[in-house]
Queue: 3 jobs
Job 1
Amino acid sequence: MDAQRYFVLASDPAERFIQDLNNVHRGRVPTEFLGKAEVHLWVVPLVISAEKSSYFKSILSLDEQERAGRFRKIGDAQRYIAARGLLRRLLGSYVARAPDRLQFTYDAFGKPSLAGQTSEAVINFSVSHSEDQALFGFARGRRIGVDLEYVRPDIDVLGLAKGDFSPNEFRRLRRLPASEQCEAFYCLWTRKEAYLKACGEGLSFGLERVEVSSSPAEPAMIRKVGGASNASEHWTLKHLSPAPNYLGAAAVEGRSVTFKFLDWQLT
């Protein structure tokens, strides 16, 4: 199938918005070739025009539209609409379905999955957005979780870490020079969050029960989960610095995974 036709349906009223995809990384992105050993990571800005926001809102489900209407701040509502609309647009391209026809199911912890997929072609996904950037992760036949955070230098790093991280992680963080503690904190947070989102349990499992590496200078890895030290044999953890002042992570089930980084500039 031609990659351009795969992304842009001739009858799609939003074709002028999706043409941007043809120029991603100076070439077209054949999403149908997402292999079982590949992970696609998309970084997309959420600041969009009113016209684009109107289109994205039009492809949301009624439940999603109602949720957007419950936000107290207009900016938060617009970012939610952009993130959900972009998810539908990208996911629809992967499975060759109209984005407004996609239906989602949710497990007991609220983790979403796409309804109506056959077991041999299941595409799993994860979404995270912070401030004006969004991170989308897609994998075939394996669990995936992503987390993205805007780095705030004025947070109480040690105060937060003492309550949410393991004793070992807190000690390592406290020993770092003050100038390095903030970045290490966000590395710890995003790596834990990505893994927990991949597992589908979220923060209910407890951040302190997952120990991870804390420095961008060392390989991202899971040290322990619930006291067991063999989690790194079954998961791949990836450190991400997708935009200035943002840090993130991706956790993918299995080893020997190839990551492909993509961006979509909605200009």
Job 2
Amino acid sequence: MGAAGYAADPDLALQLVQLRKSFEGTDVLRGVDLEVAPHEVVCLIGRSGSGKSTLLRCINLLEPIDSGRLMFFGLEISAEGVDLDRVRRQIGIVFQAFNLFPHMTVLQNITLGPIRVLGKPRRQAEAEADALLERFGLLDKRLDYPDRISGGQQQRAAIARALAMQPRLMLLDEVTSALDPELVAEVLSVIRSLAAAGMTMVIATHEMNFARDIASRVCFLDQGVMLEQGTPEEIFRHPQDPRTQRFLQSIVEAGRL
């Protein structure tokens, strides 16, 4: 069934049907299909340039798609006339770069959206932010500016900022790639806690052991195509496609799995 005949399902958090995206004539996503159920954790793996980051940016409507359909809890958010800002408020995204505002304290970074966008009273927004900061081990950093805390702490603060908007879906784009190795574990621990709490997530990652441990489903992208997907056991132990097999063999040889 083509994209036009595909029915939206309100019981699914996310449905991507034949998503296509190109930049200056280069195809980056070439007909990607994906379904994500509520509370599912889907990890996207693949070589750099395979389309993982672009896919996340399309899901969050930061990049317009060229064709296909994109549905969020039954609403076709790729259709004309959709309130993009309203949709984005329900889809949190955290990037490789922390993107914290340098002139604001950690607390101010986290409360900005809830106060200005959601209209929450400052006292309520700060109380909720403090609860997140305590959960992520950052309460003592609430009044620090981003340049006074470590990269791992900045990334945890960026995740807390996204969660402060109370999203229904979280997108994480290689959130450990810019970190020193000793800081990776603390960020992955935060993401594990979100998964344990039932947050629906789509995660682009190069951390194969992490993907194997946390994912409900692992999807292998290659040259803009969703080549293979399955449980971590199926993908990491019994990959079917030769390109998936070659990719994972290179990961094993590099000592990363």
Job 3
Amino acid sequence: MTRPLEARISASALAHNLAAAKRHAPGARVMAVIKANGYGHGLLRVARALMAADGFAVLTVDEAIALRTHGVTQPILLLEGLFSDPELAAARAHALALVVHSPGQVEALETCGPGAALDVFCKINSGMNRLGFRPEALPGVVERLRGAAAVEHITLMTHFACADEAGGIDVPLGQFWRAAAAYRMPHSLANSAALMSDARTHGDWVRPGIMLYGVSPFAGRTGSELGLRAAMTLVSRVIAIQSVRAGDRVGYGGSFEAPHPMRLGIVACGYADGYPRHSGTGAPVLVDGRRTQLIGRVSMDMLCVDLTALPSAGVGSAVTLWGDGLPVEVVAAAAGTIGYELLCALAPRVSVVDVS
């Protein structure tokens, strides 16, 4: 018997969310961010659903080559750039675009042998202090990139640390423009939060990520509240029923003590499937479309839900862990994390089913 746990991925939801990104930034080209195996949804599956995007952004050369091998002709951007000469050769062979964020990467482009010239996205550190050149270093970097035979076109870019907060882009945006104003070059600034909240960031390329999967980039709001549709719904079934008395303990460590007689359902899903172990009693779950809660600790392969108020539920009842009808943001908040983590943590052993 097949274990009754599957992730249902909706191509139409992905396409809907891409269209939403285009509506928010009508004058910009859309670089769909599909790194981390398409945020857990499947790299190639997501690319097929988002073929109306103007370009794609991934992390590794292998991801980019897989896209090229499967017919993607749009620009493909490597978000951390390159780390070796063989990667540079592969990028030239497959016409990849590169983020350049370190002196070593600039030097590699200056000193490489003859071959195809590449488009580069020169990253300015506008305050996140993760990757990129400080604004005062930009003139020297641009001069070197302009002189490198391996460089075709230069786009200036940055990444915002606090785009999901009110006023969070004001200072970094000012830093970016003070550095970039001297150059007539295209620019790329907006992640999902900036794209949806501030037209000043739209520019030439926007880089939506989490919104494409139907998840809100803003704390306290869900994707559906923003007009987005959940692309992943994680579903399972009740596989056993337990009736417990007042005072009985449930699960590893006995962390939950029943305050009264309860009827519990055991669900085929655990932390080895990607459900967060650090979640606990009170996390929301849908059973037969009705909301109930997680009880006790999440096990490797199973979790427990309260069926006391759902007398019609039993073995075989449908369970939604997150997705359509139960926003992943709400589940993540109950576990003290973010929707990104739950989606990206989906385990390889979970069956994935394509739905419309």
